[in-house]
Amino acid sequence: MIVWQAVLMITETPCQPLARPKPSFLRMFKHKAGHDAAMRQMGPAAGGSVAAAAARVISPKVLLMASDSVVSLLGLNLVAAILFMGGVWLLSLPTRNASLADIFWGPGFVLIAWLSFANTDGYLGRKLLLALCTTAWGLRLALHIAWRNWGQGEDRRYQAWRAKRGASFWWVSLFSVFLTQALLLWVVSLSVQLGQAAPTPARLTGFDLLGALIWTVGFLFEAVADWQLTRFKADPANRGKVMNRGLWRYSRHPNYFGESLMWWGIFAITLATPYGWWALISPVVITFLLLKVSGVVLLEKDIGERRPEYRAYRETTSAFIPWFPKERRQ
């Protein structure tokens, strides 16, 4: 309730709503060019292609207004992310469980996706595609982590951090865990935000279809890998053993690879828009985090000591991108 009350404070505040004080890029475009129909009439008759006609109509002033709307959108979503994760932090205090940040990581993206959907005038088909892809990924991930952590208490990483910080952990965690995640989810979701803010092209393109295909492969890769690992751990006979079956035979972290691939797919969808290359930061940041910060490096830091078999598995199996197993060195 605290989280959603915070979000409602943003969306229902009496201050000027996003993109309403000034005409949006889409409305300016319709007013000046009659949108697609008028542009088709202008094309050859005006001595140029549709793109050339658009270039003549879209003045620097209109582009500046569109940029102002995007900045307003990004600012709104940043505040929403901070309030959302701040609310999760409040929930973590009485439960003494900072692992809640992991469970609510995915839903934070869902919140940003639908706030962007409600506050932009982009092409509806692309907005729906981006919002639904983000929702499917975020909710599935949240349910998976919640199910995995049910009855397990706080993750051992946070337990170690809590023991190190002692009595100050409650407020340190606000900045080092929850607000840090708020900033990261806002940065990673830039492709979702920018892709929905762009009104052109007002149709689905090859980039949209390619991105949707890449996203689907990544989603299935992560979901199947998580399912396979959950089944493996559920068998008491596998306690202390290394999962090296199914997708895990070809990658030590196929779930992370799938997640990274999904964000490259979302970037490909956004690449169809004028803001496309600005969204490159999204897949680059999430891939870096998964490889060098909170993913592969962190999990493999001491796993070899806890599971000796993992050393052999590490020598023969790709860390991230799936590939055929190598022969172990003698």
> Between the first and last Cα atoms, what is the distance in angstroms?
58 Å
The secondary structure category is mainly alpha
Helix content: 55-70%
Shape: globular
**Computed CA radius of gyration, to the nearest angstrom:** 23 Å
Could you give a short account of the major beta sheet?
none
- Low-pLDDT regions: 1-64
H/E element sequence: HHHHHHHHHHHHHHHHH
Which band does the percent of strand residues land in? Answer: under 5%
How many strands appear in the DSSP assignment?
Answer: 0
Descriptive notes:
The protein starts with a helix and ends in a 14-residue tail after the last helix. The chain is mainly α and about 325 residues long. It is built from 17 helices and no strands.
Quick tags:
330 residues; mainly alpha; disordered N terminus
Structure at a glance:
The protein has 330 residues and is mainly α. It contains 17 helices and no strands. α7 packs antiparallel against α8 and α8 runs antiparallel to α11.
Question: How would you summarize the topology of this molecule?
Answer:
Layout: H1 2-11, H2 25-33, H3 35-42, H4 50-57, H5 60-95, H6 100-103, H7 105-118, H8 124-149, H9 156-165, H10 169-188, H11 190-197, H12 206-234, H13 254-270, H14 281-293, H15 296-299, H16 303-306, H17 309-316
Helix pairs in contact: 1-5, 2-3, 2-5, 5-7, 5-10, 5-11, 7-8, 7-10, 7-11, 8-11, 8-12, 11-13, 12-13, 13-14
